[in-house]
PilZ domain-containing protein (Imhoffiella purpurea), 194 residues
Amino acid sequence: MTDTSPTSQDQERRRFYRIQDEIGIKLTPIAAADEQAAIDAFENDSRCAGLLNELRGMRYQHLPQQRSLENKFPTVAAYVRTLERQIDMLALAIDGRDDFPTAASHLANISAQGISLTIDGSYPIGSLVDVKMTLFPGPCRVEALGRVVRNDANSPSGEVALDFSHLRDADREALIRHVYMLQRHQLQARMPDD
């Protein structure tokens, strides 16, 4: 009898929903000799890294209270939204990194587990890559380290697939929220107007 159940690797690969999106992305290959230093630097990065996604995650957790505040005290809710925008601006200034893409440049298949896209460059399977991506219209900046799991450089498409091996929880949650938002918009666009 043949076991047709999916392997644990197949199950692992599909833990999160995937969606096509136009993103800004910068991939930087990491030499094998520098991998441990890159991992250590990523894990020990300043608390500022991912601060904006952390703040947005907290805001998302309190959406029910925000909706209630908007209904009962719209003026106060408007003021709170202004404060949130100011805090976002401060978080971006504190982060201070300008090495993230500022415009959408690639069509990619993204999830909270990884990404696949067509991109120029040499990315050997198993190698580690520093990923800096910007999701729109946010903009939402996400930094991760990813392992190359597929490289179809010989095919006409030149598709590369990465599995995020190191991703901060706040950034993973930001990716999940982004994919969910895009799926919701796609479903709403398909529904006929009544």
In short: Strands lie at 19-30, 106-110, 114-118, 128-135, 140-151, 159-167. Residues 9 and 145 are 19 Å apart (CA to CA). The chain has six helices and six strands.
